[in-house]
Automatic annotation (TrEMBL):
<protein>
    <recommendedName>
        <fullName>Orotidine 5'-phosphate decarboxylase</fullName>
        <ecNumber>4.1.1.23</ecNumber>
    </recommendedName>
</protein>
<feature type="binding site">
    <location>
        <begin position="172"/>
        <end position="182"/>
    </location>
    <ligand>
        <name>substrate</name>
    </ligand>
</feature>
<dbReference type="GO" id="GO:0004590">
    <property type="term" value="F:orotidine-5'-phosphate decarboxylase activity"/>
</dbReference>
<feature type="domain" description="Orotidine 5'-phosphate decarboxylase">
    <location>
        <begin position="6"/>
        <end position="210"/>
    </location>
</feature>
<dbReference type="Pfam" id="PF00215">
    <property type="entry name" value="OMPdecase"/>
</dbReference>
<dbReference type="InterPro" id="IPR011060">
    <property type="entry name" value="RibuloseP-bd_barrel"/>
</dbReference>
<feature type="binding site">
    <location>
        <position position="194"/>
    </location>
    <ligand>
        <name>substrate</name>
    </ligand>
</feature>
<comment type="pathway">
    <text>Pyrimidine metabolism; UMP biosynthesis via de novo pathway; UMP from orotate: step 2/2.</text>
</comment>
<comment type="subunit">
    <text>Homodimer.</text>
</comment>
<dbReference type="InterPro" id="IPR018089">
    <property type="entry name" value="OMPdecase_AS"/>
</dbReference>
<feature type="active site" description="Proton donor">
    <location>
        <position position="64"/>
    </location>
</feature>
<keyword id="KW-0210">Decarboxylase</keyword>
<feature type="active site" description="For OMPdecase activity">
    <location>
        <position position="62"/>
    </location>
</feature>
<comment type="function">
    <text>Catalyzes the decarboxylation of orotidine 5'-monophosphate (OMP) to uridine 5'-monophosphate (UMP).</text>
</comment>
<feature type="binding site">
    <location>
        <position position="119"/>
    </location>
    <ligand>
        <name>substrate</name>
    </ligand>
</feature>
<feature type="binding site">
    <location>
        <position position="34"/>
    </location>
    <ligand>
        <name>substrate</name>
    </ligand>
</feature>
<feature type="binding site">
    <location>
        <position position="195"/>
    </location>
    <ligand>
        <name>substrate</name>
    </ligand>
</feature>
Length: 216
């Protein structure tokens, strides 16, 4: 996946009005937007369809899908039918659950991102001990796209070394959660950024300063 300016906006606002107000200002800088539970639970899955159509962007849906294979497949089918280009899937549920999402994606010409280790502090308790195994599982399954934390660069580096240089790694945790954009891009292909942009007094200025900081 190509990501303009190496930034994926996490569109965690709670209405389409807020989403449009933000995107009218900043959409020229972006071509990939991540939509998760906040906006979809507030406005319905049509939010995915509407943002994609109105702003001509790729949509990564962040539902951290983590159910049995049969249910995962239904979630993936419905999400892709709504227009999502990619779906973020939890790895800890095991290969059969992940495979059902991959199968749905392949049938519809879409993509799956495998979530390895999460970026928040609590991830160190249960997820960290298995996150490298999750990355290895992804490689064994032939998965191309991964999500890993910008808040623990030593872990992100390890994930990159497991998945190889040709895999595509996107990384949340930049800004508000403490991760540094430029350092993260030593290991990741693109950053996922939400609050540092949409809560900024001037989202355009915030986005421009992040872009300036990562240009080399
Ligand atoms: O490990 C993860 N950490 C994380 O923050 C996996 C995620 N998908 N996210 C998501 O990235 C989180 O749900 C939010 O949508 C975005 C980060 O937003 P922010 O911290 O930049 O506001």
């Amino acid at each position: 996946m190509e990501v303009k300016n190496k930034i994926i906006l996490a569109l965690d606002v709670l209405s389409m009005d807020q989403a449009r107000e933000l995107l009218d200002e900043i959409s020229d800088y972006l071509d990939t937007i991540k939509i998760g539970y906040p906006l979809v639970l507030a406005e319905g899955l049509e939010a995915v369809t509407q943002v994609k159509e109105e702003y001509q962007c790729k949509i990564i849906t962040d539902f951290k899908v983590a159910d049995i294979p049969a249910t995962n497949q239904k979630i993936a089918n419905v999400t892709f039918q709504a227009g999502a280009d990619a779906l973020i899937v939890h790895g800890f549920v095991g290969p059969d659950s992940v495979a059902s999402c991959v199968e749905s994606a392949e049938k519809q010409g879409k993509e799956v991102f495998l979530l390895t280790e999460m970026s928040h502090p609590g991830a160190s308790q249960f997820l960290q001990p298995v996150s490298m195994d999750i990355a290895h599982m992804g490689v064994e399954m032939g998965i191309q796209n991964y999500v890993g934390p910008s808040t623990r660069l030593d872990r992100l580096e390890k994930i990159r070394s497991i998945i190889g240089k040709d895999s595509f790694l996107i990384s949340p945790g930049v800004g508000t959660q403490g991760g540094d954009p430029k350092d993260t891009l030593k290991f990741a292909d693109a950053l996922i950024i939400g609050r540092s942009i949409y809560l900024a007094p001037d989202p355009v200025e915030s986005l421009e300063s992040i872009i300036d900081s990562i240009e080399f």
